[in-house]
Description:
Elements: H1 2-9, H2 18-84, H3 87-106, H4 116-145, H5 156-159, H6 165-168, H7 172-184, H8 186-262, H9 273-301, H10 311-321, E1 326-333, H11 336-343, H12 345-362, E2 368-371, E3 376-382, H13 389-404, E4 416-422, H14 432-445, E5 450-453
Parallel strand pairs: 4-5
Antiparallel strand pairs: 1-3, 1-4, 2-3
Amino acid sequence: MGAIRDRLSGAARHGIRLSRVNIVLLAVTVIGSIGMIIATNRLNSAYQQLIEETGKYISTQQDAGMIEEFSGSMLSESRSFLQTGDPAHVMAFYSQMDVIRRQLDRSGTAETKSTAASDRYLEEAVEAFRTLAEQDAYAMRLKAETLPVSLDSYPAEFAGTEISPEDAALDAEQKLVKAQEILDRTDYSAIRSRLSDRVDASHRAASETVQQQMGVTTARIRQELLLLRTFGVVFLVIAVLAMLSNLLLIILPINRSVSNLDNREEIPEQGSFEMRNLARVYNEVLRDSTEKQEELEYSATHDALTGVYNRAAFDREYDRCRNDRIGIAIVDVDGFKHYNDVYGHDVGDHVLRRVTETIGSKFRKEDHISRIGGDEFVIIMKNTGSAQSEDIKLKIDEINEELVKERRKGMPPISVSVGAAFWDRENPGPDILKDADKALLQMKQNGKLGCRIYGE
């Protein structure tokens, strides 16, 4: 990594610094944000005032509308009960009564009250509604007295409605007549008419007041919204500039480099200063890593002394092609132990290197040459059969002739013995490598310095 830093320190540096662009955009954003916070607070204040007035208006409208609507619906339920005697109508009547009560409880606080005029009209409407509900309940209670149904089947509030002693003394038919008279008499209709008038008056009073208050608040909100729109335009410009800078200086360079990264190739130096610097660092690291990877792969598959393939590489290659049309030649250096014992390992290493060079010069590039032992080499010859046996023998003779020329003063000549076998050999054994080894053994037993073909 030190070498990488040294190379990068001397490299020219170009490109827009994205950090500086971001600092400028950040400064403008902070200033705009402060202004927007101030405008937002002012707008929020106006909005809260608007919400408050709207809430008062809505609450008044809901209460008034619900009272008028449910009053008619409850009257319908009471009349239906007088006609059918079905307790379900009583249940529906009191269910609606509970809804009205809950609504009035929720809207009964000072915060949700509207103007004094609308509140007054609404209170009068509520009072009229309660009067009508009491009369409706009383009429249904008279009807219930005439039915063979236990009061336990009705809501407790309904069962607790008391009947006057005079009405209790009436017979069933008279009680029905009395109940119908309650709903049909003139004062009942007058109360219903008053309820409707008070609801309408409450609507008008609340609407007039809220319209006045909302006019003032709306004008204030318009001013604040105009200021916020201005800040919005500023932020839009900032966002566009930020997007374009990121697109041109980061995203596009990255997209152009994806395929290079997938293929472990160097990436072009494009975009911002930071991206260019990153590309330079990556490319240097990639080159360094590639070199080291190649070195590791080479050392894992090659013999360190001779440079040919090692035993592990031979095993993989042999397992892959052992059933193909190949020839196997096992090469053994004659008297190699003598070189090491008498002349030392340096001389022995020289012998092995020289043998390797000579073998490599005589065989084809596609032939796989491996050192599988101390002085033992194996050559996997692709697409080679018994028809080439004489050519192989000739190659071995040429190798031995060249090695003899390497004789040093006081040293015996270098020579090799070779055993070979081919895929189309006669009387093949179960393994071509073993057959080549048998041929090598026969060669060494018959004087060495030459090549023996299995089956000949």
